[in-house]
From TrEMBL:
It comes from the Bacteria. GO terms for cellular component: ATP-binding cassette (ABC) transporter complex. The keyword 4Fe-4S does not apply. Signal peptide: none annotated. The keyword Transmembrane helix does not apply. It holds the Pfam family TOBE_2. It comes from Rhodoferax koreensis. Residues 8-247 form the ABC transporter domain. Keywords: ATP-binding, Cell membrane, Membrane, Nucleotide-binding, Transport. This is Spermidine/putrescine ABC transporter ATP-binding protein. The lineage of its organism: Bacteria, Pseudomonadati, Pseudomonadota, Betaproteobacteria, Burkholderiales.
Amino acid sequence: MNSNFSELRLDRLTRRFGLANKAQGAQVFTALDGLTMNIRRGEFIALLGPSGCGKSTALNCIAGLLPVSDGGIWLDDTRIDILPPEKRGFGMVFQNYALFPHMSVAKNVGFGLAMRGVSSSETAQRVKRALDLVQLNAHADKLPGQLSGGQQQRVAIARAIVIEPPLVLMDEPLSNLDAKLRLEMRAEIRRIHKELGRATIYVTHDQDEALSLADRVVVMKDGVAQQIDAPHKIYSEPANLHVARFMGYRNLLPMAVRQTGNGTVRLEGSGLLLTGRAMQPLDGSALVAIRPEEFDIVAEPGDNSFPVRITNVEYCGHDNIVDVSTLAGMKLIVRTTARCQVGDNVLLHIAPGKVLAYPDDGSVSP
Ligand code: ATP
């Protein structure tokens, strides 16, 4: 496939599975439902969501490992969802590395080229270039078992990129590594991606990984893309309550909508009166989402501030996770670097732009 493509187009990509069910006969389950997006050359896309949301199904459909049930995949003007995986020629990196244990690092990396009939001298050159890129040339003659987990994953990346694919697909490549190595490899993957300039689609359930690596993040739930956006938008302007919940908006407060105007909204409930942002059209009631780290502890009362009593403090090193209760007994979670103790009465302030109001889905009781 053309490595110099300008756009990969996913058009209503859908995958259904037939499930045999003794009680009800055959049932159809939609694991991926109408994923539509364009991916530009050199772009890094993260598919993010909880287990079972359809991330791997989407990746496997793009790779050609799973046939699509509906919709199409286009690389510029070429329809590719009808092609077998080897004709698409995408590089794949899996969670479990999938290296051949009895082959040296160099042989593992060169395997795909040998299968494609590339001459041994060209293979040697390209393997060297790929191992240079992942900084493993000193280990070319070792067996995978003689390498650390992070090094094995770099071999898998070298093997995926040595074929010079138009697109690199990665399915949770860092989940078998410990926390420190995961951070190091995250930086490595970003560097390799930049140097290579290829489009990458990266599956993860880890928000930090998606936000730090990707140019755009696709947040998925039940097979449906909920939001496709730049990381800072996903983080600070979740499109709906599902994305807000998944991105760590742990405080969800049912409040009445008193007044709306120009994107701002006046909200009232449980003794609080707050100005916030309407994230979707609202009628009489809203579920308000606030991240624990967005509160400030202030000295003077003012707009969007209210008194609370501290009921629990969990020390986390850099900051504390603090449970508080409002005068009306509403419980909130606050992350703060301020020193505080159980029983303290403090004033909390929240900036109006950090109070996000969504239509109330009834999931939180007042
Ligand atoms: P994980 O991170 O756990 O791999 P995921 O988001 O990648 O999750 P998928 O593996 O894409 O999720 O699965 C999406 C849904 O499709 C799940 O409910 C899964 O059980 C279902 N599914 C996947 N493969 C099949 C299959 N071969 N037959 C039936 N259902 C399947």
